[in-house]
Structure formats: structure tokens, C-alpha cells
Amino acid sequence: MELIDSNIILRRFSDYDIKELAELRNIKKIWDNLRDYIPFPYTENDTLEFLEYCKYESTQLTFSIDFNGEFAGSI
Length: 75
Prior knowledge:
Layout: E1 3-4, E2 8-11, H1 18-25, H2 28-31, H3 44-55, E3 64-67, E4 70-74
Antiparallel strand pairs: 1-2, 2-3, 3-4
Helix pairs in contact: 1-3
């Protein structure tokens, strides 16, 4: 499923998101505002495990956020 607005797209994660997601979750100020179960430091292996979990959601609840064509995070 994709949700599209003029500047924002919510979509399934892809392999292209791995590096960027790991980098964002390793920024301490961002990590401070995440759920308690997310490890710090956050590795690309952690990202792979997270994306594997997202693949099997029976109803898609987790989305990648693209803003102006660039990865901006997850929701």
C-alpha cells in the first residue's frame, strides 16, 4: 500500500532504506524519542531484522516516509 500526497509518500520499506534508517536511528536526539525497545547504537543488522518484521504484518501498519523524493524516516 502507498499513501501519496504532494510532497510525501508513505510506502513499504525497500532495501534502499537500510542504510538511511540505521543512520537516522543512530542520531541520539532522534533515538531519545523512539520506543524503548529500539537498541542504541542501532546497526544495519537491526534494520534488517526490523524490515523482516514489517514484511509479515498482516495489515500494514509500518511505513517508510519519503519527503520530496528522499527517505525521511518511518511511521
